[in-house]
Design goal:
The chain is mainly beta. The chain has one helix at about 75-80; strands at about 20-25, 30-35, 45-55, 60-70, 95-100, 105-110, 115-120, 130-135, 135, 140, 145-150, 155-160, 165-170, 175, 195-205, 205-215, 220-230, 235-245, 255-260, 265-275, 275-285, 315, 320-325, 330, 340, 345-355, 360-370, 375-380, 385-395, 405-410, 415-425, 430-435. The strands form 9 sheets. A 5-stranded antiparallel sheet has the order 23-26-31-28-29, with no helix packed on it.
Length: about 425
């Protein structure tokens, strides 16, 4: 039920990789991100991992495993020793960035206590070694969320910090910063920028675009953008790129960037799951631009890299693009990621399905586990009050296993968002997957 290639979340559902930086090299897109672990009650872990996919098949992801660590526990099992040559006890690795310069690949990392460094590898998927601290005026810088940008002339720029964004030119050794260019507050947390953390720089159509986590809508769930004619500003605020607030009731932050893939731009971002801030999955959306070059806000979708979802494929509940009410997605096994805690009036949204050009009669089939007093699931199109395609009955529980509920779904054609709206008591059941036949 979880194998719809290219759909959101874009990696296997048991993988929690937030804070990703996408980079395109040699016909593949590489993702470098933090590593959350299911069940943890804190952000990230002591390892960084990398994933890649061919540009021609953005659903065929390869897990390159651990590429860097700040503990020695993976030396025997993965051949990855502690890569940080300064004290790391009790620390975790927060959001990284990576870039290719010449024939080498550089991984910029930060520790949870605020030191930052860079390691190197001849391969885009590491392992990364020979780490050195990032320093300025001979002293280690201290903060989180490093970002590296290399301009067309080969000059590198470094961005880091939380709440207020810091920036400076990087010297040619790629581990020291030029203090004469240091700006301790390139953009701040006040309006209009509302900078929170997680900056990333991209040059798009000749303009320098800062992509960053913002609190412009209250919580730090939006990726916003600002533009300039120079990598060190000044910057003009642009707007929101994507907002992950409605993917989980406990959503708190977002972090990601953009990449041009085969002539089209995509934004990579993360969303919470498991009714917690700490289990975050990577997602992607196609980016559109206005006539003036402005980045237009993306709607979170289920389809990800796909043009649309096929209604006849078994769609995991975990592909939801929006949740409303108290329901949330959780992990009950590597391949079991149901929608749970469903109450009356809750709904889950799946965007978008292509039902074809000719209207025909469909049958809806859902896999669910009974709980509480049961209820029913309305299949509606395009809004929670949209056209009612059918109603599936969900038996009362408790139930020991998964059951199937079917319903006629009427005649449907065209492209639609599917809203599953639940009616009943406080404990209606658990939804694993659904499809149209």
């Amino acid at each position: 039920m979880n194998a719809i290639k290219g759909a959101n979340p874009i990696l296997p559902l048991h993988i929690y990789t937030p804070d990703v930086e996408p980079r395109v090299y040699g016909g593949r897109v590489y993702l470098y991100g933090s590593n959350d672990r299911f069940g943890d009650d804190f952000y990230c872990s002591d390892q960084l991992r990398a994933y890649s996919a061919p540009l021609g098949d953005l659903g065929d992801w390869t897990d390159h495993g651990i590429v860097f660590a700040c503990s020695d526990q993976y030396r025997d099992s993965h051949g990855i020793p502690d890569g940080v040559p300064w004290p790391t006890e009790g620390q975790r690795l927060f959001a990284p960035d990576a870039i290719r310069i010449g024939n080498l690949h550089y991984l910029f990392f930060c520790l949870s206590w605020g030191t930052e460094g860079v390691a190197v590898s001849p391969s885009p998927h590491g392992p990364f070694t020979d780490a050195r601290q990032i320093t300025m005026d001979g002293a280690p810088i201290k903060d989180i969320d490093p970002a590296i940008f290399v301009d067309d002339d080969g000059q590198a720029y470094y961005y880091w910090s939380q709440i207020g964004l810091k920036a400076a030119r990087m010297n040619g050794d790629l581990h020291t910063l030029d203090p004469a260019t240091y700006n301790p507050r390139l953009i701040g947390d006040e309006a209009p920028f509302r900078f929170h953390e997680g900056a990333s720089m991209r040059k798009i159509r000749g303009k320098y675009h800062l992509i960053y986590t913002s609190t412009s809508r209250g919580k730090a769930t939006t990726l916003d953008w600002a533009a300039s004619d120079h990598p060190l500003g000044p910057f003009t605020y642009g707007g929101v790129i994507v907002d992950s607030a409605k993917l989980d009731p406990e959503s708190w932050n977002n972090h990601g960037s953009m990449a041009e893939i085969s002539g089209e731009w995509f934004v990579f971002y993360h969303a919470s799951s498991n009714h917690t801030r700490w289990n975050r999955r990577v997602r992607a959306e196609k980016v559109s631009f206005g006539p003036d070059g402005a980045i237009l806000e993306c709607e979170p979708t289920s389809q990800g890299f796909r043009v649309s979802l096929a209604p006849t494929e078994d769609t995991s509940a975990a592909r939801a693009a929006e949740l409303s009410g108290g329901c949330y997605l959780t992990e009950q096994g590597v391949d079991v990621h149901p929608l749970v805690n469903i109450g009356d009036g809750d709904f889950a949204v799946y965007r978008y399905f292509d039902f074809g050009g000719q209207a025909r009669g469909w049958r809806f089939e859902a896999t669910y586990r009974p709980a509480g007093g049961g209820g029913r699931m309305e299949i509606r199109l395009d809004s929670p009050e949209g056209a009612l395609a059918g109603t599936a009955v969900l038996d009362a529980g408790p139930g020991d296993g998964w059951k199937t509920s079917c319903a006629g779904a009427g005649r449907i054609n065209g492209r639609h968002a599917v809203y599953l709206v639940f009616r009943g008591g406080e404990a209606i059941g658990e939804l694993a997957s659904f499809k149209f036949l």
